[in-house]
Amino acid sequence: MPPMDLELTDEQRLLKDSVDGLLARRYPDVVKTRVEMMKEPGGYSAAGWKEWADQGLLAIPFSEDDGGLDQGSVEMMIVGEAIGRTLALEPYLATVVLGGGALRHAGSAAQRQALVPAIADGSLTLALAHQEKQSRFDLFDVGVTAKPDGAGGFVIEGEKMVVLNGDSADKLIVSARVSGDRRAKDGIGLFLVDGKAAGVSRRGYPTQDGRRAADISFSSVKVGKDGILGESGQGLAALERTVDEAIAFLAAEAVGAMDVLHETTLDYLKTRKQFGVAIGSFQVLQHRSVDMFTALEQSKSILIYGTMMAGEDDALGRRKAMHAVKVQVGKAGRHIGQDAVQLHGGIGMTAEYKVSHYFKRLTMIDLAFGNADHHLRELARLGGLIEASKPAA
Amino acid sequence: MDLRFSPEELAFRDEVRTFFRTEVPLSIRRKVIEGRELTREDIVTSHKTLYKRGWATPGWAKEWGGTGWSPIQFYMFGEEMQLNGVPAPVGFNVTMHGPVLIQFGTEAQKKHHLPRIAACDDFWCQGFSEPGSGSDLASLKTTAVRQGDHYIVNGQKIWTTLAQYADWIFCLVRTDPNAPKKQLGISYLMIDMKTPGISHRPIVTMDGTREINEVFFDNVKVPVENLVGEEGKGWDCAKYLLGNERTGIARVGTSKMRVARIKELARIVPSGAGSLMDDPQFAEKVAMVEVELKALEMTQLRIISDDRKSGRGGKPNPASSILKIKGSELQQATTELLMEIAGPLALPYVRQDADEPGHNEGEVGVDWALPTAPQYFNNRKVSIYGGTNEIQHNIIAKAVLGF
Question: Chains A and B: how many Cβ contacts under 8 Å?
Answer without folding.
Answer: 168
